[in-house]
Amino acid sequence: MKEIQVAVVAGDGIGPEVTAQGLRVLDAAAEVFGFSVKKTEYPFGSEHYFQTKEIFPDDAFEEVKQHDAILLGAIGDPRAPVGLIEYGIIAKMRFELDLYINLRPIKLYDERLCPLKGKKPEDVDMVIIRENTEDAYAGMHGFCHKDQPLEVATQTMVYTREGVDRAIRYAFETARARNKRKQVTLIDKANAVRAQDIWTRAFEEMSREYPDIKTDHAYVDAACMWMVKNPEWFDVAVTTNLFGDIVTDLGAMIQGGMGIAASGNLHPGKVSLFEPIHGSAPKHAGKNVASPVATIMAVSMLLDYCGQREASQAIEGTIQDLLTSGRLKGVGTGVHSTDEVGTMVVEALRSTAGVG
Ligand code: IPM
Ligand code: MG
């Protein structure tokens, strides 16, 4: 069987500790399900930048590209200039590897994790497809009369028909493959951001190719409201890069918070990147208190992407069992120590499979 080659960028803050647990689970899954993984670790992140002034050198980038998948811990340090390392590492990979889908499953595994009154696991089960290479993130911005009273700052929201189409197509395909409500909701703000009319038209045209899938629409402000009030209305939602950034943080909260939410940055068929949604949380770094569950869920997504579906589902099922049985008492900071959670998941995974 083909070996899975994973490039690992543990990054900053809590990144290294949660990544270490994610890798333990990856190794255990490989052992239990009989596949092999070759991991190559890269030191990039803010600390590396402070020490070497190097962000993500070209030769390393070329090497990373040769892998099947990338596992990223977290990037960001308040001592670094705003956005420098994030753009140099995360955005560089998103853009230069053309990772055009940001896949963010929002699934509630246990009622106790949900801050919404009366909502149960069957009510919170959706996937948000965030377009990942365009919009306000495309990097087209500028300043004139900088630091003068009449300074002007602009940032252009860029949408290409190809970029919009490929995100929408992925959403329809996901709804079909999930086979749940078979519904795609377009989230935009085309009533105010008139350029987003391209999304309205592209969505309507593509929906004709998917007669088996229902369509729905919500302006982003209303979508935030409905995700809190009636999350059960959502199955698959597709949206722009910036709105996707925002609504998926909201989504993370209704599934239990940053301690559990994971995402994939995909270019289907090519090297893709998997990460917890949370940031580097510097104040918790090095204390062994951060929840590694989000990174473990990112590992589960990575394995699914790399064709190890059974292993992926076993990891997800293990997290779910640990939560519903109460052995895992939550995914908040300090509920369990970081490595204790890793051990719990590894042991449960091995025992379900009758190994060890
Ligand atoms: C995310 C993050 C990034 C984003 C930051 C770190 C640039 O918030 O992955 O959601 O805005 O995309
Ligand atoms: Mg974000």
Outline of this structure?
This protein has 11 helices and 12 strands.
Helix and strand topology:
Blueprint: E1 4-11, H1 15-33, E2 37-42, H2 46-52, H3 58-65, E3 69-74, H4 84-96, E4 101-107, E5 125-131, E6 141-144, E7 152-155, H5 161-178, E8 183-188, H6 197-207, E9 214-219, H7 220-229, E10 236-239, H8 241-254, E11 262-266, E12 272-276, H9 293-305, H10 309-324, H11 338-352
Helix pairs in contact: 1-9, 1-10, 1-11, 5-6, 7-8, 9-10, 10-11
Bound molecules: 3-isopropylmalic acid and magnesium ion (MG).
Notes on the structure:
Strand 11 and strand 12 form a beta hairpin. It is built from eleven helices and twelve strands. By secondary structure, it is an alpha/beta fold. The strands form two sheets. The protein has a ten-stranded mixed β-sheet, sandwiched between helices. A two-stranded antiparallel ribbon has the order 6-7. The protein has two domains: 1-100 and 260-356, Isopropylmalate Dehydrogenase (3-Layer(aba) Sandwich), CATH 3.40.718; 115-255, Isopropylmalate Dehydrogenase (3-Layer(aba) Sandwich), CATH 3.40.718. Helix 7 (220-229) runs parallel beside helix 8 (241-254). The two termini are 23 Å apart. Residues 245, 249 line the site of magnesium ion.
